[in-house]
Amino acid sequence: MKCTLKYEAGKWFCSSGDLFKALEAYSKKNRKWIDPELEKAITAFHSRYYPDERDDSGEKYPWNAFNKVNIRTNTEYLEKLKKKVVRHDLTWHWRLLLPYLSSSLSSSDSIVLCVSQIRQWQLVSCFHMEWPSEKNKLKLLRSIRSEKKNLLRPPVFGKSHRITRWEVYASFYIPEVLCEIKKAVNKAEAEGNTFRLAHILGRYDTYIKITNPKWGKTKEQFELDIEQIIDLDPEHEPAQIEDRNTDSVCRPYGLARLPQFKEVNTPKFPKAKSLLFSSDNYCRAFEQVSDVLNDTSARQVLVIAPPGSGKEYISEIFHTCRKKNGHMVKTSLAGLDEKAAAFQLFNLELDRLEKRIKNVNGIYQPSKKFKANIRDGAIFKALGGTLIIDELDKANDKVRAMLLRFLESDDVAIPGTSIVLKIPKEMRPLYVFAGSKTKKEFLQLGPIDFWSRITHIVEMQHPLELGEVADRLRVAEDYVRLFWFEQVEAFFKGEKLLKVSKVSKELFEPLRKIFADCWNFFVSREVGDFVARELAEAICGQGKPIPSVRTIRGTVSRCFYSIFHSLLYHKKSDAPLEIWAKKIGESETTGKEPFIELHKLMGNSLKQQPIEQELKNWEVNALEEIRMLIRSSVSIQV
C-alpha cells in the first residue's frame, strides 16, 4: 500500500487511494460493505479493551456507519466517505516524529516508523534499518522482525483510540490483511477463546517505510511516499536453531520488540529488546518512562517499584532508548557509610591524570576524550551515559546528603586528595535512583531537600497486582511463556545439541534427530501453553500469594529441566512417561513418535478439560506425571 504525506497551508495530510480501493473492491465482490469476521474482531476488541466507551450517535465507530440504509445508492455519502479515507489528517505520532524525519532523510538506510498496537496502548518507534528485499509478504515480515534497528528518537508510548479513525479501519480491507483476520477469527471461534478473538486486533504492528522525499522551493512544498505493511501476528514468528525451524512457537501474547540506540563506538545496529506488555501495570509505568525519555530536561529520575516487579528492566530502558555518548553503570549504596559511598562514586585513578582532565578558566573538569578505567568511581564510568543507583531507600541519610551536595553543584571532591572536578553539563549522566518503598515513605527519608532534586518519578505496581484472579493468571501465563521460550533456546544453543560437524554427522545423526524432535516439542505453542496454564495456576492461583518475577523465572527453569530429564533420561522403567514411550513405539500406525504424540496430547488437553475420559489409562498417567513435574517445580515464593 502506497501513501503520500504532504504539507499544505500549514497542515500535514496523508493521501492513499489504495485504502478506499480495497474497501470498494470488497463491496463489489461480496455485494455488501461490512465483512462479518472483521466486525466480530473489532467488536470483540472494543468490548474487551474499551468497555466504558459508548457510541450514542451510532456513527462514532466505522462499522456502525456502514449499517446505514441504502448506503450503496447514497452517492453523496459515498463521496464524503471516500474523502475521509483517501485524504486524512495525520495522527499524533506522525506529527510528533516529522521533525526528526526531515533531518534524517539523507541517510542511506531506510527510515521506518513502527506503530505497535498493544490492547488499548500504542508504542511508536522511529528507526534506521536495512529494508529487506523480499517480495513475499510473509518472508518480508519475518525479515523485518529480526532485522537489527537503530533508534532515531526515543519511543513514544500511551493510550490509543485508533479504531475510531476511518483510514485505520479501511486498512484492514487490504486483501492479505483481511485474509489473515478471517483465518484468526475462525480459529478463535472454533476454540471458543474470547481473549484470542479480541487479541486479533488488540495486538499488531504496522511498519511504514519512508521513501522518495521531495523538497520544494518553500517549506510548504515537501512530500514523501510511505510503504505500509501490517503484521497481525508479531509475537509468533518462527523459531530457528541451526538448520531446524518451526512455525509453532511458544511466545507470550503481550510481547513487543523495542529498538535501541547504538552504543558508543559500535558500528553495527543493536538487536531490538523484547519487552512484555501483558500487564496494564507495566504499561502505565512504561508510559511514564516514555515521558521521561522524551523530556530533554530529565536529570534525576526516581523509579519506585515493589520487590520482584522487574524494575531493573525499566531502569535499563532509560539508557538503551535515550541518545547518549556514554555507558550504563549500575551500583548500590545500601549499607555503606559516607566514606565508602564517596569512594565508590567519586574515586579517580591519579595515574596519567593530567591527560584526562583539563583546566577551563581555572576550573578543572574531565576532558572530552576522558576514558574511565577500572579504578575510577561510578560517576566517571557513567559520564555521558546513565548511572543507576539501586536500593536508594536502604542508603544512609548521610550518603543521600552527600549525593544532594553533588547534584546541586556537579562538583566532585576526589576522596583522599584536594582535587575538585566539575562535571560539564554535556557530560553529565542521567541519574536513575531506584527503590522499593512507597512514594510517601521515600519523601519522608532524610534529607528532605534531596527529593527536590528529583525531576521525574516513575511509579510501578507489581505486574501481577491485579484485582481479578483471571487477569492475574493470564499475565502470569505470559511470563511463563516468555521465560520458557528463553530457557529452551538458551539450553539447546548452549549445549550445542543440534550442531554436528560434517565429519561426525553420519555417526551422530540419529542422536541429533532425537534432540531436534525434543527442541520442536519444548518450543511449540501447544506445549508452552500447557506448561503456562499449569504453572501459573500452581504459582499464583486462587488464594496464592503474588510471586516475584524472579520466582517465576527460577520456577520455569526448574520445570524445564525436570521435564527434559524425565523424557530423555528417566530412571524408572515403570514410570508413566516410560510406559507412554514404549506404547507409542509398539504402535502399528506409521509415523507415530513419542514426542509428536505427546505434543498432540498436551495440545488437545487445552481445548477440553474432560479429555481424560476419552483416553487410555497410560495416556492419562503420562499427562498426570507431567502435571506433577510442573507442580513440584514450584518452590517457596519470595
User: Can you give the mean pLDDT?
Assistant: 86
How large is the share of residues in beta strands? 15-25%
Oligomer: single chain
Biggest sheet, open or closed, and with what strands and sense? 9 strands, antiparallel
Structural class: alpha+beta
Number of helices: 22
Distance between the termini: 51 Å
What is the radius of gyration computed over CA atoms, rounded to a whole number of angstroms? Answer: 28 Å
The shape, in one word, is globular
Unreliably modeled segments = none
Q: What share of the residues lie within helices?
A: 40-55%
Number of domains: 3
Number of extended strands: 22
Question: What would the keywords be for this entry?
Answer:
638 residues; alpha+beta; Rossmann fold; five-stranded parallel sheet
Overview in brief:
This protein has 638 residues and is of the alpha+beta class. It is built from 22 helices and 22 strands. Strands 1, 2, 3, 4, 5, 6, 7, 8 and 9 form a 9-stranded antiparallel beta sheet that branches. It has a 5-stranded parallel beta sheet with strand order 15-18-21-14-22.
